[in-house]
């Protein structure tokens, strides 16, 4: 697969090249060209040239425009006395301007003088050459302006109705070069040669041009200087003899007007850099053209060169790819901005260095391609990141849902087009078992490496058109289409299980994991929603986890009912707290020596307003999972202490009653909150902590022994009684049991209920009682249901008994009545 940055870069480059070929970037590229002209070092005045300027002062001194033929003739005659090699008259003289017509005509016959003419056009009339001037001594005005009115080109040669015309600048330069006897050759539409120097013509797509009007034979005007092209003297200075003859002898002299009022002014690249800069007079532009020809022929100064069109396209593509790669790689905006700025600066630097060596290669198109590709790559990357998992590179949930919808739509379309039922679609949701343990024990980095390895291994088990996505922290979804039957999905699930059970070697350490999977089978003739499919797959996966993990479950409609019931139970449970729907029932435990009630165990009950009595087995697990057991447990302690205080006040003469409350594992992992809450409850109710007993199970106590001991000691400091509940069913270590500051061991009902049936259970109960006595703990046997069991427990010297033989859990009023009756067993 091609890198997305490269693909976007190629698309952007193609788009930029297309716009450029239609001339869409020509104006911008010409502006860049002008900027490089302005930045280029000035080459100084051309010593071969002298420009005689007709200024505003000259016009005022002559008191007329056009200047009379007599004055022009006088100036030419004066210059001829200084022996110039060539004189170029950049003043139209197609009609006489009396006085002095004959004098001017005589001067125009000089063999070293070249006059100017103007070819006609749609918006300009033609201006012929002066009468009597032969064709080899006049040239057409060669100033060519671009669409933005800036002069950047030099017209050397044109053909009109089969007749050849050379430009004024070329004619002047050729007359100046005549004594060198250089061969001059014109090959129409191919080349102009002066000696060994070749002047290649501009093409419509040369340099930054793309839609150039290349009629005639044009070259790019290579400005020598913006402000100091040649020595300049005024017409008045020439007439007054205020010219050093050395300035003129063997020089090329051009006569023309620079007066702004004549409006023979042109925009050049230099004018755009400074609003105060004057526009360049036409005579100076002609002098620039002449200087370029002479510099090329006599000094070997190179003409501007260009790349071939294919090379320019490759140049644009290269910078487009560079922009795309940078946009993809650098994610921090500041870093990307700095790198992008440096890159654009580097591009301009390359173009400018080549420009200093007379090369004009594109700057604007590659710069735009670079920036556009960077933006496109960033946009693509943002879209990619929004639809893909950053760690594994797999599609995320959002993209998986889209592709699942496309698959379902495709199945529906095939069903509508064919009478035969198309193959179905299957979604397999895979959740790693015990991934949190791996994360906590090995660290996030190693866990991330494991996820990447799992993603890679899963891919190897799938077909090329199957879709794998990471839809959760440790959950992967697989879209299978087409699928002929459910067995095919089952075989894949077995293969995935087999692969995942193989160890993952990460940093020379083997890591083992398993996965539970939920599968949803979608038939083409039924309607499905992607989110519902994922929901059902998640339900089936949870069912697989509940069934022992490392297996898969196919979704059945009954599972959804269970989930909805579970969700509704959670909603009702939250409302029950606010609506005070909970109540405590109290089951007495009896002092077996006296036969009297020694206290009660507070047991939580829920009376739902619509569903009626909800058994604790149903709602306690939900409360544990959702952490609702914490506020519920706090309420239980407060309510039990409040009721105990009522009984102590109501039966002051009775043996001091004790109330026991079961603690949840969730409460146990928040020791500070638990201690503070119990301490505040004892203070608020006025209960002595000795009459409150807290019961914890073996499994809670052994989760973190040291933390458990520390918390029990803090509770013991409140003078509370502590009990280990359901003893014998967990995994207590006897080496730790003596360290627990507990007062009571509670024998699980499973042993007590079988005392009369199996002698082995009697021995177990006897052993527990002996163990407790040896550790100075009292024993409570729960689940007493018969007189025989009571007699056995008394014979084993068990201190307390609890069970249906004495009483079932009773509401407060019934428990109060029981106390009033003062029963004795």
Structure description:
The protein has 825 residues and is α/β, with parallel strands linked by helices. The protein contains 29 helices and 33 strands. Strands 25-26-28-29-30-31-32-33 form an 8-stranded mixed β-barrel, surrounded by 5 helices. The chain has a 6-stranded parallel sheet with strand order 4-3-2-13-1-12. The chain has a 5-stranded mixed sheet with strand order 19-20-18-23-24, sandwiched between helices. Helix 25 links the parallel strand 30 (721-727) and strand 31. The longest helix is centred in the middle third of the chain and has 24 residues, at 333-356. The radius of gyration is 51 Å and the shape is rod-shaped. The chain starts with a helix and ends with a helix.
- Range of helix content: 40-55%
Strands ordered across the widest β-sheet = 25-26-28-29-30-31-32-33
Would you identify the regions where 5 or more consecutive residues have pLDDT less than 50?
none
How far apart are the first and last residues' alpha carbons, in Å?
Answer: 84 Å
* Form type: rod-shaped
Average pLDDT for all residues: 90
**Biggest beta sheet summary:** 8 strands, mixed, barrel
- The rounded Rg comes to 51 Å
Proportion of β residues?
15-25%
**What structural class is derived from the secondary structure elements?**
alpha/beta
Total beta-strand segments:
33
What's the helix count? Answer: 29
SSE layout:
Layout: H1 4-21, H2 26-39, E1 49-54, H3 56-62, H4 69-80, E2 86-89, H5 101-108, E3 113-117, E4 138-140, E5 143-145, E6 151-160, E7 163-166, H6 168-176, E8 184-187, E9 191-194, E10 197-200, E11 217-220, E12 231-234, H7 235-239, H8 245-248, E13 252-257, E14 265-266, E15 280-281, H9 282-298, E16 305-306, H10 309-329, H11 333-356, E17 359-360, H12 364-387, H13 397-417, E18 424-432, H14 435-442, H15 444-460, E19 467-470, E20 475-483, H16 486-501, E21 504-506, E22 509-511, E23 515-522, H17 530-546, E24 552-554, H18 557-579, E25 582-591, E26 597-608, E27 612-614, H19 616-625, H20 629-650, E28 658-662, H21 665-668, H22 671-685, E29 692-697, H23 698-703, H24 705-716, E30 721-727, H25 734-737, E31 744-747, H26 749-753, H27 759-774, E32 778-782, H28 787-795, E33 800-802, H29 812-821
Parallel strand pairs: 1-12, 1-13, 2-3, 2-13, 3-4, 16-17, 23-24, 26-28, 28-29, 29-30, 30-31, 31-32, 32-33
Antiparallel strand pairs: 5-6, 6-7, 6-11, 8-9, 9-10, 14-15, 18-20, 18-23, 19-20, 21-22, 25-26, 25-33, 26-27
Helix pairs in contact: 1-10, 1-12, 4-5, 6-9, 10-12, 14-15, 20-22
């Amino acid at each position: 697969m091609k890198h997305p940055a490269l693909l976007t870069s190629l698309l952007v480059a193609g788009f930029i090249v297309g716009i450029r070929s239609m001339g869409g970037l020509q104006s911008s590229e010409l502006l860049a060209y002008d900027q490089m002209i302005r930045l280029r070092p000035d080459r100084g005045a051309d010593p071969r040239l002298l420009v005689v300027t007709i200024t505003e002062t000259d016009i005022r001194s002559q008191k007329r425009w056009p200047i009379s033929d007599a004055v022009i003739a006088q100036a030419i005659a004066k210059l001829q006395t200084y022996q110039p090699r060539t004189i170029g008259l950049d003043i139209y003289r197609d009609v006489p301007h009396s006085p002095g017509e004959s004098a001017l005509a005589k001067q125009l016959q000089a063999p070293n003088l070249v006059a100017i003419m103007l070819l006609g056009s749609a918006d300009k009339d033609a201006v012929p050459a002066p009468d009597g001037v032969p064709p080899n001594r006049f040239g057409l005005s060669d100033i060519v302006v671009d669409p933005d009115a800036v002069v950047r080109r030099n017209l050397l040669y044109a053909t009109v109705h089969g007749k050849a015309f050379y430009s004024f600048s070329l004619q002047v330069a050729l007359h100046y070069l005549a004594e060198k006897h250089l061969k001059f050759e014109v090959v129409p539409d191919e080349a102009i040669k002066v000696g060994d120097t070749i002047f290649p013509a501009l093409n419509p797509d040369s340099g930054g041009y793309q839609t150039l009007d290349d009629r005639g034979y044009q070259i790019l005007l290579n400005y020598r200087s913006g402000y100091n092209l040649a020595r300049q003297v005024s017409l008045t200075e020439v007439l007054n003899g205020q010219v050093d003859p050395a300035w003129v002898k063997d020089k090329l002299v051009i006569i023309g007007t620079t007066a702004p009022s004549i409006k023979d002014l042109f925009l050049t690249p230099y004018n755009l850099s400074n609003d105060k800069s004057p526009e360049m007079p036409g005579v100076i532009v002609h002098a620039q053209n002449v200087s370029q020809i002479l510099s090329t022929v006599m000094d070997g100064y190179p003409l501007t060169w260009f790349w071939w069109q294919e090379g320019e396209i490759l140049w644009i593509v290269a910078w487009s790819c560079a922009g795309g790669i940078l946009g993809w790689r650098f994610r921090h905006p500041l870093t990307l901005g700095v790198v992008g700025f440096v890159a654009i600066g580097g591009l301009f630097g390359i173009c400018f260095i080549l420009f200093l060596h007379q090369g004009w290669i594109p700057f604007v198109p590659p710069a735009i391609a670079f920036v556009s590709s960077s933006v496109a790559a960033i946009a693509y990357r943002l879209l990619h990141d929004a639809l893909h998992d950053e760690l594994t590179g797999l599609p995320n949930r959002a993209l998986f849902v889209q592709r699942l919808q496309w698959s379902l739509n495709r199945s529906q379309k095939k069903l509508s087009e064919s009478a035969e039922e198309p193959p179905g679609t299957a979604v397999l949701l895979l959740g790693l078992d015990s991934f949190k343990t791996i994360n906590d024990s090995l660290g996030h980095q190693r866990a991330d490496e494991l996820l990447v390895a799992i993603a890679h291994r899963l891919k190897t088990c799938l077909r090329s058109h199957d879709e794998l996505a990471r839809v959760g922290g440790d959950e992967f979804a697989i879209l299978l289409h087409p699928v002929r039957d459910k067995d095919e999905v089952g075989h894949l699930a077995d293969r995935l299980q087999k692969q995942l059970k193989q160890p993952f070697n990460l940093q020379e350490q083997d890591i083992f994991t398993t996965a539970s999977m939920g599968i949803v089978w979608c038939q083409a003739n039924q309607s499905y929603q992607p989110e519902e499919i994922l929901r059902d797959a998640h339900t089936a996966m949870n069912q697989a986890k509940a069934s022992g993990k490392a297996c898969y479950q196919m979704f059945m409609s009954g599972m959804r009912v269970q989930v909805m019931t579970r969700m509704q139970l959670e909603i009702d449970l939250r409302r029950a707290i606010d609506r005070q729907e909970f109540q405590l029932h109290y089951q007495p435990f009896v002092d077996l020596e006296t036969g009297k009630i020694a206290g009660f165990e507070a047991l939580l009950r829920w009376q739902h307003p619509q569903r009626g009595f909800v058994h604790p087995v149903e709602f306690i697990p939900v409360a544990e999972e959702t952490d609702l057991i914490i506020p519920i447990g706090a309420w239980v302690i407060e309510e039990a202490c409040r009721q105990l205080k009522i009984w102590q006040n109501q039966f002051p003469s009775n043996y001091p009653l004790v109330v026991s409350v079961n603690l949840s594992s969730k409460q146990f992992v928040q020791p500070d909150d638990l201690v503070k809450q119990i301490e505040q409850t004892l203070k608020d109710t006025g209960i002595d902590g000795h009459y409150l007993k807290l019961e914890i199970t073996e499994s809670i106590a052994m989760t973190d022994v040291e933390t458990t001991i520390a918390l029990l000691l803090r509770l013991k400091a409140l003078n509370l009684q502590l009990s280990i509940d359901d003893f014998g069913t967990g995994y207590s270590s006897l080496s730790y049991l003596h360290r627990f500051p507990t007062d009571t061991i509670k024998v699980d009902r499973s042993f007590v209920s079988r005392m009369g049936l199996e002698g082995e259970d009697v021995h177990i109960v006897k052993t527990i009682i002996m163990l407790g006595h040896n550790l100075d703990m009292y024993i409570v046997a729960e689940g007493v249901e018969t007189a025989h069991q009571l007699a056995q427990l008394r014979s084993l010297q068990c201190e307390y008994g609890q069970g249906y033989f004495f009483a079932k859990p009773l509401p407060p009023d019934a428990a109060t009545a029981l106390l009033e009756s003062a029963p004795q067993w």
